[in-house]
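Can anyone check this?
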Amino acid sequence: MNEKSNGSQLLHRLANVLAVIISCAVIVLAVLQLTNVWQTAVNVCIPLMGLEMLLQTYSQWERSRKTAYFTLFAAIFVFICAAVVFFLP
């Protein structure tokens, strides 16, 4: 039982670290977009925000299901919007 909780705890820590790294990348990409250094940084930024929301859903799943469901639906909405923007002219 202890090994299972250690593995689960490791996955939660990994998800949290990955979420922080992705959040920092989103901030850097947003600054690059706003300062016109990289014109298409938003094309990378939006899917990264959706991925960060999925990691947040994983982190919140045991604590608060309502928050996790809301974050999951927001992530799905972000991915749908990104797909529409990328694939429709």
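Reply from J.R.: I decoded it. The first helix runs from residue 2 to 34.
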